[in-house]
Amino acid sequence: MNDPGSEWLADRLRDAPGELRARMLAALGEVPGGLPEEARTVRSLVGPLRAAADRLLGQAVRGPASPETGEVLLAADGLATLACEALAESAPDVMREVP
To answer: Which of 19, 32, 35, 85 is 20 to 30 A from 11 via CA?
Structure first.
């Protein structure tokens, strides 16, 4: 994993609790088109991170409330936060335009 984007994501997920990290990575794996095998840039992560967050949020909204719902929402929040962080770092001008 020598690509800047892959290294960036690994660095951000390194200290996440194991179950949370696993749920986030699983959600990324379920995104149509998936996470680029080699994320050559941090910017290339924004779309898949956001799509995975949206997918988990939809799952939480559709399902019955349960202790697992909180875990799903936490993973969705983490992915959305990483998408924003990736965009802010890789394209600050674009981030400033986001409503």
So the answer is: 32
What is the distance between the alpha carbons of residues 8 and 84, in angstroms, rounded to a whole number?
13
Count CB-CB contacts under 10 A for residue 55. 18
> pLDDT at residue 36 above 80?
no
Residue position matching structure tokens 């967050």: 53
Does pLDDT of 15 surpass 80? yes
**H or E, element range at 2:** none
DSSP-assigned letters across all residues of 21-54: HHHHHHHHHTSTT-S-SS--SSGGGHHHHHHHHH
Query: 66, 55 in Cβ contact below 8 A?
Result: no
Question: Greatest CA span in the chain, whole angstroms?
Answer: 41
pLDDT exceeds cutoff 60 at 26? yes
